[in-house]
Amino acid sequence: MNLPLGFRYSATFAGIRKVMKDDLALIVSDTHAIAAAVFTQNRVVAGPVEVARRNVRAAPNRMRAILINAGNANCATKTSEKVAMETSRATAKAIGAKPEEVLPASTGVIGVELDARLIIDALPALVAGLSADRFDDAARAILTTDLVMKTANAQVKGARIAGMTKGSGMIHPRMATTLAFVMTDAVIAAGALRSALKRACEKTFNRISVDGDTSTNDTLAVLANGASGVRPRVTVFEAALTEVLESLARQIVKDGEGAKKLITIDVEGAASERAAEKIARSIANSPLVKTAIAGSDPNWGRILSAAGNAGVTFNPRHINIDFQGVPVCRGGLAADFSETELQAKLDEPECSVKFTIQGRGRGRARFWTCDFTEDYIRINASYRT
Amino acid sequence: MNLPLGFRYSATFAGIRKVMKDDLALIVSDTHAIAAAVFTQNRVVAGPVEVARRNVRAAPNRMRAILINAGNANCATKTSEKVAMETSRATAKAIGAKPEEVLPASTGVIGVELDARLIIDALPALVAGLSADRFDDAARAILTTDLVMKTANAQVKGARIAGMTKGSGMIHPRMATTLAFVMTDAVIAAGALRSALKRACEKTFNRISVDGDTSTNDTLAVLANGASGVRPRVTVFEAALTEVLESLARQIVKDGEGAKKLITIDVEGAASERAAEKIARSIANSPLVKTAIAGSDPNWGRILSAAGNAGVTFNPRHINIDFQGVPVCRGGLAADFSETELQAKLDEPECSVKFTIQGRGRGRARFWTCDFTEDYIRINASYRT
């Protein structure tokens, strides 16, 4: 991977996970970086999210590091915020930065006290291990029950963007936390980075669904340290960032717990993008739709019914639906198609659903979800212990 | 069962289902009945629902019959509304009523043409079979993949209320249709019946969830023929109606596809009933919560997180959560409880979750849902054919 200049990465096992596998990662920018981040909208917010939000606000132009632990969400405990502050402070000290220049993030079980000592004791080894080529080690350390590492990168006029993420929907025994960290050596202003992240996130991470839940710890952060000296046009940078985020978001859905298929849902012809997005989200979140696709069942009635529950007005007689490019519903009625042939096509690992409202509506939206299998229940229903 | 006077019931096999099992039911009031009904809020509405809604509006004081078929939803087809009108008209003729005095309802697969002929040809046998004691036959004929018949009844000052319902959430290969029909021989005015039904429904059928979906065919209708000559106070009648509807609604959840447990969720201390209901609904619809309870996992973090996604403001530090009466979370933090003992309690067929916001909020709501098991996926993911 062609990594952005001026960043180093490290990972170690601090004893937070029950299994001996790296559970602590550190990303350091050699110089001050511009930072932008979006966080969970859940009413219940983990301590590290509170601290990270404060720090990004306090030091948007001089972020130095991201400290991530897996195995404990550091949420809904007495010491949640205190632990996030203490460990950020210790990390800052170890790399010669100020406390607000470190962004903490956690993922794992909630309601269990996280011992700050475990992290603080691991810091010397973590910092000593920092290296420009340990990107993948960090990307692996932040995973929980993910089956695969998730990274993506792009080039933009000679500058580079590289991202890592974790999450596979409902993660037992943990919450469905999504974490994503993107590094770039492009030169970009803080305000422009914030807007670019917000818009790119809206079309990528906010358009995926494994189960419709939001975790207490969701964090997506971008650091831009300018080390390449390249200042791309903001629209060009945003396009490259969107490409990286889309790749990461799709990787999360593809690795959704128990999922066998990645489903892309396109809605077209709605009155507005917002209306299209609501319909797409309703289809993507319907267990009825997700189980049908798991069984390669071209049951378009479930799509129509899920769309009808989106809270958006449309005339059912103006609806066309396609599965895998095959028309299954035209004008709200069954189209003439071979069920057997389509079932075979739906056995593929990627499925597409297109929902079109006939007429002149310009609103369109794309959404990604995964199918819903018995494995998903098996994983999530086992005892926590 | 102590049945209301002046109603007769019948059921027969009309050849709509693939298996030879009664699929057509008829409920007749010997005299004109007051009618009130509530229907699906899905944007996609089946023909019989359109016709039923029109008829209840046209003849609220002289409804004579309800005609129900299972095996085909008569929805999203070219002839949907026409079939509903033709079969209502033929039924009216057969019992000596006007077309608008018959309320049609359908449940089954959507997008497949329903042949009106099948119903019309079955009508002579259906009408000939009408009898005051065939309530259960009708209640059985309206079932789809339900495992058990669902009926309930109450007495109110010497008048009687009897109801039947169907539905087990996601019903493969059909939609998640809920149908419920309640007969009473109490004397009650049309307006009072409508208000009583609306309020009773709000606290019962609108407070259950198997999967969060709404079908294109949902119908809940009450017929009051006054045959007992008893005129109970409206509040007393409403209480009895609520009791019948609550029993029917709980039976649906208990028979939810793949469900092994009935879960009762109580939310207290919210700012308003509406806020309490939103929190309860969010908990009830969370696959995260439903799979945890399937596995008898007292994972209160999932409850807290689901509540945090309800769109209601609360301070997480003011939250208490109890499972089966056992405190598991106090002030947003883990309470001291024996996980092993609680797991054993959660193995019972009925589970309770209590979510309390500390303080002086008076808003409370009760909601019912079921657990989420592998069987549910198995049933819903198989090929439709």
What's the helix and strand layout?
The structure is a homodimer of 385-residue chains.
Chain A: E1 7-12, E2 24-39, H1 47-58, E3 63-72, H2 80-95, E4 102-109, H3 116-128, H4 135-141, E5 150-156, E6 159-166, E7 179-184, H5 190-203, E8 208-209, E9 219-224, H6 234-254, E10 262-270, H7 273-285, H8 287-294, H9 300-308, E11 319-323, E12 326-330, E13 333-334, H10 339-346, E14 350-357, E15 363-370, H11 374-381
Parallel strand pairs in A: 3-4, 7-9, 8-15, 10-14
Antiparallel strand pairs in A: 1-2, 2-3, 2-9, 5-6, 6-7, 10-15, 11-12, 11-14, 12-13
**What is the count of helical runs of chain A?**
11
Please tally the β strands of chain A and state the result.
15
Task: Label the structural class of chain A.
Answer: alpha+beta
Apparent shape of chain A: globular
Unreliable segments of 5+ consecutive residues of chain A? 170-175
- CATH topology value of the largest domain in chain A: L-amino peptidase D-ALA esterase/amidase
The most extensive contact between chains is: A-B, 67 and 67 residues
Percentage of residues in DSSP E strands of chain A? 25-35%
Number of domains of chain A: 2
Q: What is the share of helical residues of chain A?
A: 25-40%
**Major sheet summary line of chain A:** 8 strands, mixed
Name the CATH homologous superfamily of the largest domain in chain A.
L-amino peptidase D-ALA esterase/amidase
Instruction: Round the Cα radius of gyration of chain A to an integer and report it.
Output: 22 Å
Q: Architecture of the largest domain in chain A in CATH? A: 4-Layer Sandwich
CATH class of the largest domain in chain A: Alpha Beta
Average pLDDT of chain A, to the nearest integer? 91
Along the chain, the helix and strand elements of chain A come as EEHEHEHHEEEHEEHEHHHEEEHEEH
Ends of chain A: how far apart? 39 Å
User: Quaternary state, please?
Assistant: homodimer
